[in-house]
Amino acid sequence: MKKTCSYSGKPILIASDQFDLVLFRLLFPFEETEENLGLSAILPKMFSRRIEAFPTEESFQVEKLKRNILYIECSLTVVGTTSCIFFDLAVPRPLLLKEDLLEEAFELFEETIYHPYLEKGAFDSFDVEREVTNLKKRIQNKQLNLRDYLPQRISEIADDEQKLFSRSIDNHLEQLDCLTPQSLYQFYQTVIGKQKPISFVFGNIEETRVQELFQKYFKTTEEPITFIQDYYHFLSPVRESPQLVIEEKPFQQSGLILIYKIKDLKIEDRIPLTLIADLLASPSSNLLFQKLRTEKGLVYSVSVQNYFHYGVFYIASYIDADKMEEAKEGMLEVMEQLKDETLVTSLLDKIRERKRNGLERQKDNCYALFDDYIMDYLEINNSATKRYEMMQKVTAQDIHSLVDRFQLDTIYFVKEENHHGA
Description:
By secondary structure, this protein is α+β, with helices and mostly antiparallel strands. The protein is built from 15 helices and 14 strands. The longest helix has 22 residues, at 341-362.
């Protein structure tokens, strides 16, 4: 579902006088490929400790404090094959403090992005080696905890069609061994150094000042910024009956996961699918926990995950190894409950009320409002207000119809090692 999208080359201001902060976000989109997984995982780490003008961690941190900067951060997000490295700056709103250091803060923000700390024309070898080592440790540590281990393993099991859902640096550690300061800097030049960002500003600040800052430090123009949106890669059901996958791992408990794919999934199914996840696991209904823990006493806990962009949905129960069959039976019973339109109607009312309360709370959270606007603008997700409005139209019959299109793809059991029960 690729499409070419154009966005304004000028910063987009979301004006609000409700908060005492001004938030800036600059996004650099690029296409994720299997070959650049290692580079894109390490690159965001190169901007947090030091930059060219302030070559030690201490001097960089002190300078941020001098300029009244609350934080400068760099992160990576991936949706489908569309990757985006983004930089965030948070500062007090102008005139809040005696000394207005907004321009000084913005200058340091620009230097962080376009003047990172280099050594002989490449990123510093010590910095790169440290971040590579840290990433390897984090990946290795996933093998020690069941909940950390499951997401990547589930994606590998479910992704027997296009090998995109399961694509991860976890399975390409050789890229980290081959990564060099020079190759990382070349990648930086390609995705950031030579690109113009999509820019957003949130808060109580005059638009003329925003435009002046961006024109001075980022040379913004009217020319649009174009990139390829490739968010959705729905996996189609391919099995007439579910496969059974059983593994033994050195965890302290076992996990039973039912992995579903959805027939003829459409973007319009997003809200009903979100509500199905809420019916199963939100505090307003929690059908899974009620059945498996409260009624049957089978589980320690449960979870639900909706990977909508790939059309994969799973429910999980964390159990003793000898409870597998009973837990599976209970989980399947709960999925059938979703077809009980009388029950679902009453629960949807509770979920909507909880969503309404959450929407009210979000109005007091500038970070959530900023994220929400950007996600909607880039068409990654609808805004919270739009989602709530769309939820009002979903009926129990809609839920029933969508559940009928669920197809159980895999029964995946992770069994604790050395368990001698049934």
